[in-house]
Amino acid sequence: MVSIVLIGLFLLIQAVPSLLVDNINFFTSPEWSTGDVANLRFGIRDLLVVTILSSLVALVIAMPVAMGIALFLTHYLPPRVARPFAYVIDLLAAVPSIVFGLWGAKVLGPALEPLATFLNTKLSWFPLFSGNNVSLAGGGNIFTAGIVLSIMILPIITAVSREVFQQTPVMQIEGALALGATRWEMVRTTVLPFGRSGYIAGSMLGLGRALGETVAVLLILRSSPLPSSFSVFDGGYTFASKIASAAPEFSEPLSTGAYIAAGLVLFVFTFAVNALARYVAGRGKAKAS
Amino acid sequence: MAKRFDIKDLNIYYGKFHAVNSVNLAVPPRNVTAFIGPSGCGKSTVLRSLNRMHEVIPGARVEGKVLLDGEDIYASNVDPVEVRRTIGMVFQRPNPFPTMSIKDNVVAGLRLAGVKNKKQLDDVAERSLRGANLWNEVKDRLDKPGGGLSGGQQQRLCIARAIAVQPDVLLMDEPCSALDPISTLAIEDLITELKKEYTIVIVTHNMQQAARVSDQTAFFNLLGVGQPGQLIEVDDTEKIFSNPSQKATEDYISGRFG
């Protein structure tokens, strides 16, 4: 607790001088130029948009997949078979994120290009699919980054969900089966209601990881001179990848402060997500007892 | 509706462990059959194999025949899910679905069977709750969660849930063992009511209870540690408790056991 407060204080103290001399609105401007210390112009709008969009894509993919895998491992496969399978999923968490980044940028991105083109042109009535501020070629966009992030957060969501699904009381499972429920009906009437809050909490933990992921996103996303068009086919920077990309130039305190201000926003944001996860998990526990 | 069971040469296994040896037993319709015997003698296991709940445990299997009005529920073309829809079960500890309302709990079986008509569901909920002697206590809070009821009420809710689908047979696995004496009395009265319509098989550790509610009693025993459980004898309850034909039965019911 103390260390969290100290980190927050550090970020705040470093960020305030830069925020005071910011010449544009910090929250609503897409611009980011910190080269001229006499005329700092930085806003986090696009960082926020790219961070949230990439994390949302990751969650939308990872949440159902993780639920499916967790249910399959706990209530369909015999334990003897499920254990090695679960181990493989857990192993995904051990892959270094730089490797995910390289794979996303060099393998997955180009492979997704036809799909991205299809979604971007044929399904452009869906707001998040229309427009792009970087070329679709090579796949250096939020879409690719989100898919890579979904793989990276899959193990944590799966592990937490597996844990809670496993703990469904046997007497409830038997109650459902004895009523003539099929396995899926049993899962729907007992396992899912029982594990719901844990599943959501696990997803929030995954979201926290996706929001803060740095190097994989940095390698995948292509930067763009244009502001965000609020599409998943945009390029750009997330909070974390923006800060990491500028790390070699942190010599001027006022410019550095701009990045630290962005870091502060990310800090508060992930903190809020984690607090929400804890609240949801705690509420579920209170209900179960 | 109420059907009879004929259990023929039933052997039950947990993996390699032979849990129950060769049970032969007839359960007449509209009648209460009690299973009594010491812990671990296999009476609950036999009960659970009557609606194919035994095989839910990994590695568990059954040999022999269980005929429900002449039809073997273990025949290869029989779906265990269908068997469980027609044979209701009440467990040792009340297990209503905690996130469902009282009414949704009662009609859960019907919903699984695909009934959607709201009027019909309401009618069945009322009829079943009345049948379980619970209607007057819960009629004003049907939409409240079932977990908020007392233990005895929850168990009656589970009985209502089991009879809502009008099963052929009602199986009860020590339904009163987690309840206080007053709730136990309520359930016993209910069993006496229910046997007018249903075939009931009840496992109990409480011999007075077996003597009070059942028409026929089956005594199970273990011949030794690691040996399978056996059906020692089955007879009219009155006869079992006054003049059993086996010495082991007499020792058990008179408390000279072990």
Shape of chain B: globular
Tally of strands of chain A: 2
Tell me the Rg of chain A in angstroms: 22 Å
The most extensive interface, with participating residues per chain, is: A-B, 21 and 28 residues
Number of domains of chain A: 1
Continuous helix count of chain A = 10
Query: What is the terminal-to-terminal distance of chain A?
Result: 28 Å
Query: What Rg of chain B is obtained from the alpha carbons, in whole angstroms?
Result: 18 Å
- The share of residues in helices of chain A is over 70%
Note the run of SSEs of chain B as H and E.
Answer: EEEHEEHEHHHHHEHEHEEHH
The CATH H-level homologous superfamily of chain A? MetI-like
Q: Which overall shape of chain A is indicated by the principal axes computed on the Cα atoms?
A: globular
Keywords (chain B): ATP-binding, Nucleotide-binding, Translocase, Transport
Domain ABC transporter (chain B): 5-247
Pfam family, one (chain B): ABC_tran
Organism (chain B): Lentzea indica
Description:
The complex is a heterodimer of chains A (289) and B (258). The model of chain A has no long low-confidence stretch (mean pLDDT 91). Chain A has a two-stranded antiparallel ribbon. Chain A has helices spanning 2-20, 45-76, 79-92, 97-122, 142-166, 170-178, 183-212, 215-220, 239-246, 253-288, and strands at residues 32-33, 41-42. Chain A contains 10 helices and 2 strands, in the order H-E-E-H-H-H-H-H-H-H-H-H. Chain B has 258 residues and is an alpha/beta fold. Chain B contains 11 helices and 10 strands. The A-B interface holds A 78-79, 169, 171-172, 174-182, 185, 189-190, 193-194, 287-288 and B 51, 53, 56, 58, 81-86, 88-89, 91, 93, 95-100, 108-109, 112-113, 158, 161-162, 165. Chain B: Residues 5-247 form the ABC transporter domain. Chain B: It comes from Lentzea indica.
Briefly summarize what is shown.
The complex is a heterodimer of chains A (289) and B (258). Chain A is mainly alpha-helical and 289 residues long. Helix content of chain A is 71%, strand content 1%.
